[in-house]
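Retro notes, structure queue

What went well: the backlog is down to a handful. What didn't: a couple of records were mislabeled last round, so from now on we paste the full input next to the output in the thread. Example, using Sulfotransferase from Rubrobacter xylanophilus:
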Amino acid sequence: MDGLKVLYVAGLGRSGSTILANSLGQVEGFFSAGELNFIWKHNVLENRLCGCGTPFRECPVWREVFERAFGGMDAVDARRMISLQASGARTRHVLPMLLPAGRRRIAARLREYLANTGRLYRAMAEVTGSRVIVDSSKEPAYGYAVGMVPGVDLRVVHLVRDPRAAAYSWLKKKEQPDSEMRRYMFRMGPARSAVLWDAWNLSAEALWRNGRYLRLRYEDFVAEPGPNLRSILDFAGEPGADLPLVGEREVKLGISHTVSGNPNRFETGAVELRPDERWRSGMSPRDRAVATALTLPLLPHYGYSLTG
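Corresponding output:
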């Protein structure tokens, strides 16, 4: 299946990628797969829950995907896949990816990994009957590696959220329901999240400035979901697809088969898309000042006020 379309959501975590990807997953012909960069570790090895609520290895959809792609979940060495991925698809590989010689070295290093990733994507499309795979892994370097997979037509939605809102979300204690090994999701302070916000957003622009790339602010998406979803469907080459909305602002989520990611991926039923502005009153002045100072040069670039 040459030319399989992969719609890759890039950007820092806690930027609304889960609700965006799951909304797109309701479109006919789209399959929201979740954060596929973690599938080998979190799902094949740790057997965390699929978005349908079933342990990954028991999910009939993923069992069929792996059977078709590899002959079963244990037919591929998951630890080797994790090691290969780390050797050429991490943030430290962004700079080499910007140079022709660096891209050639990384492609050669990842040859086996890319071949297996291609088999996985094609099996997902075949099993689910999808034309577009939505991968919300977010990491720019991993997304660029996905674009090296033979037969993949990569299209990147660069999702940006106000860094102070993202920092506030990273500070909150949030339960991790898909794993018995970790009760709460990973947290980090405003300084670290702000530096990552700078690095990942700049990386996304640098890697895809000459490719199929669409930038979207989270705040714009939730304020006007209809027009922004239509723009994404047009960008994905699916202009005739129906919008997954009930009314102007509500999306009806069905059971998903997402791997890894924010616990919101387990949500089903009607969900109203609305701005989350709790950070404006809930964030401490110190944390807000730190996040603002460390992202100051990029705030106007993405249309955010210096004062919030």
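Agreed that this is the format going forward. Reviewer comment attached to the example: The CA atoms of residues 51 and 257 lie 5 Å apart.
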